[in-house]
Amino acid sequence: MPAPLNDLTPKEWVKFQKSWFVHNPPPRDKTKILHPASFPESLAAEFIKFFTRKGMWVLDPMVGSGSTLIACAMTGRNGIGIELSPYWAKIAETRLNEFKAQRNLFEDNTTEQRVIVADAREIDQIDLPLIDYVLTSPPYWDVLRWEGHVRQEARRAKGLPLYYSDDPRDLGNIKDYDQFLDELVTIYRKVADKMRSGAYMTIIVRNVKKGAWLYPLAWELALRLRDFLELMSERIWSATVGFSRRFALKGFEPFGHLGLADGSLSP
Questions:
Q1: β-pair partners for 195
Q2: Range of the domain at 125
Q3: pTM exceeds 0.90
Q4: In whole angstroms, how far apart are CA 193 and each of 80, 104, 187, 255?
Q5: 20 lies in a domain?
């Protein structure tokens, strides 16, 4: 009999599997608000608790301000975050250390969370433990660079960072939509190779609108990832700021055999 997917009760399991949900996170702290596109730790914790058990390894290949790692510390999971920008990596480490200090986790915590400064394109060259779950949110193409992005005006007025970085390797600085998708899919293919058989990946993503044009980023990404991942479900997050899409994806078995849903998806 396969090991259970998580440590949840049947009631908690059923609650999580709704196709859409409302999640209004607490206010962001002074360092988290610096990041132009972060997601809440409270939300990350819900996904981590569903797709893993305590002590398992979680990976975020684009960790940004560290939400995934803080959620790992919060839930008793090991976590690794890869971040291209040394600036955001430092922010993530600072936020993680502050959280651990507040919860007295440096002495009591039996898990570890760490940030690696690297380009996610080179994850195949990084020595990592076998990953049990991937939780990540890529840049939504170069939408932060678009002059018509309403949210950017509010951040500019407050003197907050508008972009991830000026690094030409930054996916958020790629102007061509197809090139952006190609490079993102290449990264996720390498990430999938780091996952154990039967592991899951959740990608926080949404479609992008520029002016009158809609770019179906969430849909096209899901279609392209079918070459090596199986789309298991979609969840829609409803909040006061709008909608985002969550894709729970299951990786290939070894030797390229598709990882089919089996008895592991039961409480």
A1: 131
A2: 10-256
A3: no
A4: 15, 35, 10, 11
A5: yes
